[in-house]
Request: fold
Amino acid sequence: MVEKENPDSLNSLLENYEKQKTIDAAADWKQLRKRITSDRNKHLFLNYLRNAAAILLPLFLTYQYVLQPVLNRSGATKETVTVTSAPGMVTKTILPDGSEVWLNALSSLTYPQRFTEKDRTVQLSGEAYFKVVSDKKHRFNVETPDGMNVSAYGTEFNVNAYVSENHHEVTLAKGNVEVSAKESPQKEILSVGEKAVINLQTGNMSVSPADTYVETAWKDGKMVFRREKLDKIAEKLSRKFGVNICLEGDRLKEYEYTATFTDETLEDILDLLKRSAPITYSIFKQKQLDNETFTRREIIIKSK
Reply:
């Protein structure tokens, strides 16, 4: 008995055959290979990123939190700040550690933008009063052009180190300081109310009692003289008022004065000095130079 074929099954086979004829096996295989290659490359790339991160992350953290702070600190020490006080001025500045400094007329102070972890060092030319923040781990050093060094951990003291003078002085107001000079192995530790005087020609250092009020009143705008010789008074007046004062005759240098000046003008002070001793003075006007600048006023003091 012969079975008849189902027309629907025959049609289905014909449709499948027609579909198979339209399939491009080579193209499909090529596309599949691309997909496999792409997936493998993505997997390799992800593995590469994971390995790179494992290597670079510790390096980045080391640079960010170890090397960069060190580089910043070492770079900052090379960048300095210089503060200068003009004639007739007292200039106050705050150092990176919070220490306070008053600069007298015609003085300059140089210090780093940031102190290092080892010490706190500044350079002074002229006169300054230091109020140093206490830090028992880091010394505070004041260096002068002639090689004098004043060292402390936290204290208040006055340094008079004008280049034009043959003697430099350190007066201690609070705490204690160590004073040394380049030309001498001698070191002195001062107590409150003492003054160290260094002779720049011999390098010798002497320590004696000091009147701290007289030595430091300038930072409060006062000029205090106690049996001060006229030649020293003339030097201080020259710096304060930005003038040149000349004494004619050695005898004038022996005159001594005791006085306190606050807001007096230069002429007021000269008149007071004139009343206390047989002297007279002449003030000469400034002269204009070829470069459009002016000379300082000249003042000559003579005996009557």
